[in-house]
Design goal:
Number of helices: 16
Helix content: 25-40%
Structural class: alpha/beta
Shape: elongated
Mean pLDDT: 89
Radius of gyration: 26 Å
Length: about 500
């Protein structure tokens, strides 16, 4: 981003500043290096305040030290800073310019367009750091946020206003699940914010191209601070993302925010923090890294009707090393969120995609975030899968299995197979319910394992074409009524009869 563009963009934020209330102060750079300045003389500057360094560089006051010394982090990589240079206060807490025009755009943490399109008209400014809504302004999470991924919607449901962690090793499909959830919000009246922190520009370009191709950019904003951007921008990116979300929250809208990923965010903060000489804590991370993420994620909420009734749902992503979920950053974020979706590399390598470990994944909101139709079919799945995996390990050492054990293994293997799903093959909830019903009620028990995916695809087409009232009823009633269940059973029996060649 050219310097003149950054300067003019931030200068717009300062026009409304009341200098009579906050008179301009002037200090001087006493030391600098690695994007960090030590400034003397700014006696009344506030934490998080924007300061002007020299003629056209901006910084953020982060450390307020003794004897009017201030630690300032530059908002861009600059080579024009020198000792003794003038630093002026602005009285402006760092904010991002927002308006409805920001939907469908790619912006940096300062609200500047980085997609090559015209600048975004600013309606108002949202402070990047803000106190989260209080308990009395909130209400319980009871409305489902469908991801379109059967393994999540059935077993680890997410509600609007929830904070659900996606955690796992590198290359296990964490970003894919989050992007799948964004794709599934089409037509669901949910605005999506995708925050890319420290990602390669090539990955980001592919992601944006995919979202545009699938029509998801019509309701999505991308906030990016790539790996080549300054650590300060990577540090600010998630706060910018949730500030954009809060603009729509105040309008009573539902927003989904994906933070991809907070491990890189913590690393950027560590770099800044240690250069500012803040004290280190466990594992050499600064001791306040817990507060770094808690003050971000607690801004996710579902407001009550008196406060507009909107919601912000947060999907933070954390990368683990060698499946170690007990490390410093993972345990921090696990304790802040309302549950986690744990992706295991062994399952991923074995072809189970999404590679969700059902045993260590949990939703603390649980079935409160599910529609009744999903509760009706999903109730026994977790138990069936747990028994299946236990029996599967036992069966490896025994060739002589009784009939009941064989049936449990057959049922579990087919449920396992039906949960396999491409990240971009999201399903509407009524199709998920029909698919899961067939699996848990035994209609797949005689289907060859290799034919299960084909069975599911053609079954959904068959129901849509021949019995559309089943899907219509599930959508309308949000449950499987007696009449709908009777029609669904008849449809499943007739479909099985038509495909005897798939049976064993």
């Amino acid at each position: 981003m050219p310097k003149t563009s950054l300067f003019s963009s931030l200068a717009q934020q300062l026009k409304a500043t009341d200098f009579a209330v906050h008179p301009e102060m002037i200090g001087h750079v006493s030391a600098f290096g690695d994007g960090i300045l030590k400034v003397d003389g700014l006696s009344n500057v506030r934490a998080g305040e924007l300061v002007i360094v020299g003629e056209n560089s901006y910084g953020l006051a982060l450390n307020l030290e003794k004897n009017d010394k201030v630690g300032v982090v530059l908002l861009e990589n600059s080579i024009e800073v020198s000792t003794g240079q003038e630093v002026r206060s602005t009285g402006q807490i760092l904010s991002i310019g927002v308006s409805d025009e920001i939907i469908g755009r790619v912006v940096n943490p300062l609200g500047q367009a980085v997609d090559g399109k015209p600048a975004i008209a600013v309606k108002e400014y949202e402070a990047l750091e803000k106190i989260a809504p209080g308990v009395m302004a909130r209400q319980s999470v009871t409305v489902s946020l469908q991801t379109g991924i059967k393994g999540i919607d059935a077993l680890i449901p997410i509600g609007r206003g929830q904070r659900q962690l996606i955690i796992g090793d590198r290359g296990t499909g964490k970003s894919s699940i989050a992007l799948g959830a964004i794709l599934n919000q089409k037509g669901q009246n949910v605005i999506c914010i995708y925050v890319a922190i420290g990602q390669k520009r090539s990955f980001l370009s592919q992601t944006i191209a995919m979202l545009e191709k699938r029509g998801a950019m019509e309701y999505t904003t991308v906030v990016t601070a790539s790996a080549s951007d300054a650590a300060s921008m990577q540090f600010l990116a998630p706060y910018a993302g949730v500030s954009v979300a809060e603009y729509f929250l105040r309008q009573g809208k539902d927003v989904l925010v994906v933070y991809d990923d907070l491990t890189k965010h913590a690393q950027a903060y560590r770099e800044i923090s240690l250069l500012l000489r803040r004290p280190s804590g466990r594992e050499a991370y600064p001791g306040d890294v817990f507060y770094l993420h808690s003050r971000l994620l607690e801004r996710a909420c579902r407001l009550n009707s008196e406060h507009g009734g909107g919601s912000i749902t947060a999907l933070p992503i954390i990368e683990t090393q060698a499946n170690d979920i007990s490390a410093f950053i993972p345990t921090n974020v696990i304790s802040i969120t309302d549950g986690q979706i744990y992706l295991e590399s062994d399952l991923f390598n074995a072809g189970q995609k999404p590679a969700i470990n059902i045993g260590t994944s949990v939703s603390r909101v649980g079935s409160a975030a599910q529609i009744k139709a999903m509760k009706q079919v999903a109730g026994s799945i977790k138990l069936d899968l747990a028994q299946f995996r236990e029996l599967q390990a036992f069966a490896q050492f025994s060739s002589d299995l009784d009939e009941k054990t064989k049936k449990q293994l057959d049922r579990g293997s087919r449920i396992n197979e039906i949960l396999k799903q491409g990240w971009d093959e999201v399903l509407p909830v009524e199709q998920e319910v029909a698919s899961m019903y067939a699996a848990v009620r035994g209609f797949l028990d005689q289907v060859e394992i290799s034919k299960v995916k084909q069975y599911e695809t053609e079954l959904l087409e068959y129901v849509q074409g021949g019995h559309p009232q089943i899907f219509e009823s599930i959508i309308k009633e949000q449950k499987i009524t007696e009449d709908t269940e009777k029609t669904l059973v008849e449809a499943l029996n007739s479909f099985n009869a038509l495909h005897q060649e798939w049976m064993i």
